[in-house]
Amino acid sequence: MSDFFSGGIPGIDELFKGIFGDFSPFGGFNGFGSRSRRRSAPRREVGQDIEDLTEITFEEAMFGVKKDIVIERYTPCDMCEGTGAEDPSSIKSCPECEGSGRVRKMSQSGFGMIIRESSCYTCNGTGQVIDKKCTVCVGKKVIPEQKTIHVPIPPGIEDSVHLKIQGAGHIPSTNAIPGDLYLGVRIIDNDKFIRRGNDLYTPTNIDIVTAIIGGKIIVPTLDYKEKKITEKELSLPPGTQPGTEFRIKNRGVSYMRRKGKGDQYIIVNIEIPKKISEKQKELLLKFKEINK
Q1: What is the DSSP letter of 132?
Q2: Which of 66, 84, 102, 168 is the right S-S partner for 181, CB 3.0 to 4.6 Å?
Q3: How far apart are CA 65 and CA 59, in angstroms?
Q4: Please, what's the b/e burial string for 217-245 (b: 16 or more CB within 10 A of its CB; e: otherwise)?
Q5: Which domain CATH number covers 281?
Q6: Are residues 154 and 207 in the same domain?
Q7: Residues 183 and 208 occupy one common structural domain
């Protein structure tokens, strides 16, 4: 809101001219009278953003996926081309602001008369009013539409990340800058993998005999060539202890901002049987005797 002063102190302009010459410290005021200025070009309207949420599987998060997201947004009405009027002749100049989109109100102060300028409340600053409204948008100038947005989700994305899709938001008028779409991503857990940063941890149960004498086990892992979860054979040494971690290099999560991948760690958990047969008990006792 701008303030313009009129009236004021007689001779003040001459006083400042004597001090400052042709330069006036009031930047264009003539003795606190009228002020001349150029009307700045109107800024382009910017549409509101849209927020949405999508769910993806663990595999889709690891290997990347393209998702079709259906959104609802407002766009300029096709029938009236975003004018809100039944036809061009129904658009009139606002009688309140005389088409300027701005109104002035005067009030008295100790400095004289203050003129306050603001946006016209009758036409909302457009300078135009509509006699007959468009039958489709009912003068609102926009209509709702459903639009399918193709969103590429990169490999290695983390849970709860928001992707910005520029220009996919609301479009309030024909010359407006569209808003953006912010798509939140929720990743469905996979019970075979625990993610920590770009590394994956896979708890794996082995029997007590394999832990003692060693052996080969099958573990789930990621196949980036085939873009799927597959299985890999892993050799365990004799005497493997509970909680031991075995690393499989480059089988973790892809880095989003640089090349490469994290690692996968197989965490060994040794299963102790709760019930054993008499034969098993006999053999274990023999093993105990031998091991003394």
Answers
A1: S
A2: 168
A3: 9
A4: bebbbbeeeeeebeeeebebeeebeeebe
A5: 2.60.260.20
A6: no
A7: no
Dihedral of CA 181/68/184/225: which sign? Answer: negative
Identify residue 194 by its one-letter amino acid code. I
| Tokens representing residue 132 in the block | 């007959």
Claim to verify: residue 241 and residue 285 sit in the same structural domain: yes
Asked if residue 169 lies in contact with residue 180, where contact means CB atoms within 8 angstroms, the answer is yes
Contacts of 255 (CB under 8 A, 6+ apart): 156, 198, 261, 262
Token pair 């953003």: residue: 49
Q: Predicted confidence band at 24 (pLDDT cuts at 50, 70, 90)?
A: very low
Rg value, the chain, Cα: 37
Give the end of a domain, one of 164, 187, 210.
187
Phi, psi (5° rounding) for residue 135? Answer: -75, -15
Please tell me the distance from the alpha carbon of residue 75 to that of residue 174, in angstroms, as a whole number. 8
Whether the CB-CB separation of 249 and 259 falls below 8 Å is answered with no
With respect to residue 8, please indicate whether it lies within any of the assigned structural domains. no
Distance of CA 219 to the CA centre of its chain: 36
HSE at residue 222, side-chain half, CA atoms within 13 A, is 32
CB 117 within 8 Å of CB 102? yes
pTM of the model: 0.72
- Does residue 45 belong to any structural domain of this protein? no
Q: Are residues 201 and 265 in the same domain?
A: yes
Together in a domain, 263 and 172: no
Domain boundary among 162, 187, 212: 187
When pLDDT is averaged across residues 107-114 and rounded to a whole number, the result is 77
Q: Across residues 47-68, what is the average pLDDT? A: 97
Helix (H) or strand (E) holding 66: strand 65-76
